[in-house]
Amino acid sequence: MAEASDTAGGGSVPHPLHAYLTTLLKRVGTIQTRLQNKQQKPATAISDGTAWVSTAATLWAGEFTPRSTTYITGVGSLDDDLQDLLRRTPATCTEDEATRWRAKLGGHHGA
Q1: CA 2, CA 88: separation in Å to the nearest integer?
Q2: How many domains does the chain have?
Q3: Domain for residue 71, yes or no?
Q4: Which of 21, 29, 57, 70 lies 20 to 30 A from 100 at CA?
Q5: Do 89 and 6 meet the contact criterion of CB atoms below 8 Å apart?
């Protein structure tokens, strides 16, 4: 999708890629929030000893926390990449460009 930076802005119709990326960014943000909430609750409960106390719990917490951080960081990187691409994609384009982008997106028009 490197072509996004090659298109000239200032067209008269909404850019399908811009609309798609905006929708995708919202979905990623929702997933990011859910993932952080789901990861933090068990990590906190295990680390403060309210959920499970044993040698196994300590070992499991030692595995859970780094994996949780990896997942949260990965989704955060995806969010950052989408924001960067969205910034480089004009909000409008010509009708011809919009037609080409709708074909490339295969029915994903941001809705």
Answers
A1: 10
A2: 1
A3: yes
A4: 29
A5: no
Query: Which two three-digit tokens encode residue 14?
Result: 């909404």
Q: Is the dihedral of CA 23, 24, 30, 33 positive or negative?
A: negative
Q: Quick: pLDDT tens for 44-62.
A: 777 676 766 777 777 777 7
Does 6 map to a domain?
Answer: no
> Tell me, what's the pLDDT at 1?
44
Q: Are 85 and 4 in contact (CB under 8 A)?
A: yes
Asked whether residue 34 is assigned to any structural domain, the reply reads yes
In a domain, 74, yes or no: yes
- The H or E element spanning position 101 is helix 95-105
DSSP state for residue 2 in the 8-state scheme: G
With a cut of 70, which residues of the chain have pLDDT below it?
1-10, 47, 49, 51-52, 108-111
Number of H helices, E strands in the chain: 3, 2
Relative to beta strand 13-14, strand 92-93 is antiparallel
What does the block give as tokens for 46? 């295990």
> What's the pLDDT at 10?
60
